[in-house]
Amino acid sequence: MKLLAPKDAAVRLGVTTSRVQQLAREGRLRELRDSAGRRLFRPQAVERLRKEREREKERERQRQGEIERAEESTGAGADDAGTDAD
Question: What are the distances in angstroms from CA 39 to CA 1, 19, 35, 57?
Fold first, then answer.
């Protein structure tokens, strides 16, 4: 099994190497260390996290769409923000 260096994991995830290291510290991406102490990642773990992030983005897009539709149906929106009829 070929393991990925942080740079390769970052390319697959579409993030920086610093973000990959942060994800590992947060426990969202499991890291391995070689005998020299370098971080390595299993391709399957990187792919699993990539899919999870895609699902999160899709859910956020759906929530945003629901909010926009609700604002349109009630007539509320950015144009009404901060206006009071006092």
Answer: 15, 13, 10, 27
Q: Which CATH number does 6-74 carry?
A: 1.10.1660
For 41-65, the pLDDT digits (tens) are 999 999 999 999 999 999 998 888 8
Q: What are the sequence ranges of the domains in the chain?
A: 6-74
Can you tell me the distance from the alpha carbon of 2 to that of 32, in angstroms, rounded to the nearest whole number?
12
| Amino acid found at 43 | P
Q: Residue 8: which of 37, 39, 33, 30 has the closest Cα?
A: 39
Q: What is the pLDDT of residue 76?
A: 66
The half-sphere exposure of 68 on its side-chain side, counting CA atoms within 13 A, is 6
Taking the C-alpha atoms of residue 60 and residue 31, their distance in angstroms, rounded to an integer, is: 27
